[in-house]
Amino acid sequence: MNPVPSVVHPAGQPDLVAQAAKVFGNTVRLSIINVLKHGPALRADLVAQTGLPAKTLGAQLAELEALGVVKAEAQHSRGRPMLYYANQSRLEELLSALSQYVLEGVSDIGARGESH
Fold first, then answer.
1. What is the pTM of this model?
2. Superkingdom, according to UniProt (predicted)?
């Protein structure tokens, strides 16, 4: 028996759409972005504001960084805590790609009276 792949990438689906789905299709990641849209935050602040366990938050921040929607900067203080902030232009790029993919041709279908 062949193992089931952990990520399925449908044929013809643009990579940007798959990346957008990883960002916007996850409620935990959305809660982190929601906090960061108000400005940069330290990890401790993100834990406090999202209510997420530190380990969960760390894993999700790493994924958001890998997807390019969150950036981190080391602070110049003792312990060098990381300051996280949202990458607005990357978020807009992914949201635009997702919107285009989902809505492309929708108005045409409605105009022809088609359903399902």
1. 0.79
2. Bacteria
pLDDT tens column, 53-107: 999 999 999 999 999 999 999 888 767 789 999 999 999 999 999 999 999 866 6
Euclidean distance between CA atoms 6 and 84, whole angstroms: 28
Q: For the chain, which residues make up each domain, given as ranges?
A: 15-97
